[in-house]
Amino acid sequence: MTRKRLIHAINDALVEEMERDERVILIGEDVGASIFGDTRGLLARFGPDRVRDMPISEALMSGMAVGASAAGYRVVCHLMYANFIYTAFDAIANQAARLRLMTNGQIRLPVVFMAAGGGGRSNAGQHSDYPHMPVASLGGVYVATPSCSADAKGLLKTAIRTDDPVFFLQPTSRGGEMGDIPDGEHIVPLVSAKVLRSGDDVTIVAVGAMVRVAARAAQALAEDGISVEIVDPRTSYPLDQDTIIGSVRKTGRLVIVDEARSAGSIANQVAALVAEKAFSSLKAPIVPVTTRDLAIAYAPPLEKAMIPDADRVVDAVRMTIREIAP
Amino acid sequence: MIPNSTAAGSLDLLRTMLTIRKAEERLAGDFKAGLLPGPVHLYIGQEAVATGVCAQLDDCDWITSTHRGHGHFLAKGGDPKAMFAEIYGRSTGICGGFGGSMHVADVSKGILGANGIVGGGIALAAGAALAAQLDGEGRVGVCFFGDGAAAQGVLGEALNIAALWKLPLILVCENNGFSEFSPSSSVIAGDIFRRAEPFGIQSVRIDGNDIEAVAEAARVAVEQARNGGGCTLIEALTYRIHGHVEGENAFLKTRYREDEEVDLWRLKDPVSRYARLLEKRGDIAAGKLSELEESIGKMINDAADAVADDPYPDSASLDRHELGAA
């Protein structure tokens, strides 16, 4: 094991995959300067043919990523902040997500759209979204949501090797966090949820930066004798349904934590799944913990009040327990 | 693969234009007869543009096309039978019936697809041109787009990057006078070819109904792009003889153009104009023209008839395009 920051784990994945396959190219906003640090050093290492700073033209760069991948390259397209996928969305939604079916598989697109999403840094309304579900709703794009260094590395490596589009959404606020990464080749398959913590009383499904929030809540609840199981889907689309359903069948209670807004949260998807496939296992109503349906506010106390924290998760878990009290 | 442009002879150009014309006339009839499951946008009147440009290209050069894309498909070497089958929604179609009229694609011929999003092919072609540049084998990317697409911001974004990176990109604007159901004079300001000037990209406006003018402009542009000279914008002035979409009079309450205007443009028809020229030059013997027309008409009708009753795709074939399916 090696301890590394999440952002350095991403950098390692890019280096390893670009070393492994010379058809891998990286285009994006400030990939040379690298404001997050994830693409630092790549321009010097791989040269300006394979590492290209793009103008701030998201519609163009996402479309070019599609075109270059259709024409034989494995393209990593760094969009910087996840909100910018809205500007890039035609190429993602109308092109990348559609071309495989529309051409009956003549075109496969090994393209990764990567961006940093989520709040916690007072980046305000246009730099704090966690838009995994708008992309999940397209049906033709994998959505990878790493929550720690090891998964960031392993998921990105898999994403780059995948012959279909992947949206790789890294948590903005967690880039500096340290985590253990297995030595040697480390791959995490898409559509493979991870059980972070095994428990008997309540399942928490948590995504991205919310995984650590859930872990904190689980720690606090353990002190009160409540045993929590945490499931990190790691891929918001397609969902690893079996792991989620298996956990709920065991615990009978479900809390879902997502920093996406309620109207477009994965809580809706997971709750529907469990209602359909594990209804008879439920001992209490499912409780979602999400962000209010508002733009993320700037002032620190306002932002804190919106995005789920450990206290809200603890309350949600207690609510599911109270439901069965006599 | 290293591209090899062999100049098409004048008779080849006429043949290709006639092939497109006959195919579109057949589809117009099929639409009226209720044989087409979806909308079709016909290229009648614009045949010289696709024909003149694609005559300069090899199979390994890339093109992106538009919702009005049958002409580009055929001119770039797409198989008429596979195109008809696709438009009829049959499993034998070039895209297995998954794409239809607006998405005909044949990657083996460098056709990255017609595109239902106006301007949707611009960034894709720029990406394919980037791939071609990285390959270093002299390939080019060509984007066909309409005057309507000149109002999309991505055109400016593409001109910017094409100039910066000297991309082997040829932007071919087919100015047919209409942005869907609006005369472009009411929605497009300025001269489209001049949009390239501030970027230092060479551009030219030509008579798009003069096949030899198109072929010559394209020859110069393709040669320049192959030799590292970068991008050209060609604005080909032409006219859409049919409506935006077949059957539009059924839902349009008012006319957006006068019959007299259409009649005037019929006199400038690129196909008969070139046929007359070839007759005058003695390139085609008197009396041979109707023979040629007849044989191409028969070839097209035979191709369409041969696939008109092919089976629809099986609904189980949808499975193959789910993420995760190989």
Description:
The complex is a heterodimer of chains A (326) and B (326). Chain A has helices spanning 6-20, 42-50, 58-70, 89-96, 99-102, 132-136, 149-161, 210-223, 241-251, 266-277, 300-306, 310-322, and strands at 2-5, 24-29, 51-54, 74-81, 111-117, 142-144, 166-171, 178-181, 194-197, 202-206, 228-232, 235-237, 254-261, 287-291. Chain A is α/β, with parallel strands linked by helices and 326 residues long. Chain A folds into two domains: 2-181, Rossmann fold, CATH 3.40.50; 194-322, 3-Layer(aba) Sandwich (Rossmann fold), CATH 3.40.50. Chain A has a seven-stranded mixed sheet, sandwiched between helices. In chain A, helix 1 (6-20) packs parallel to helix 7, helix 3 packs parallel to helix 4 and helix 9 crosses helix 10. The longest helix of chain A is centred in the N-terminal third of the chain and has 15 residues, at 6-20. Chain A is globular and about 60 Å long. The mean pLDDT of chain A is 96. Chain B has 326 residues and is α/β, with parallel strands linked by helices. Chain B has a domain at 6-46 and 240-245 and 266-306. Chain B is built from ten helices and seven strands. In chain B, the strands form two sheets. A five-stranded parallel sheet of chain B has the order 1-2-3-7-6, sandwiched between helices. In chain B, strands 4-5 form a two-stranded antiparallel sheet. In chain B, helix 2 (47-54) runs parallel beside helix 7 (211-226). The longest helix of chain B is centred in the N-terminal third of the chain and has 23 residues, at 10-32. Chain B starts with 9 loop residues before the first helix and ends in a 19-residue tail after the last helix. The model of chain B has no long low-confidence stretch (mean pLDDT 96). At the A-B interface, helix 3, helix 4 and helix 5 of A face helix 5 and helix 6 of B.
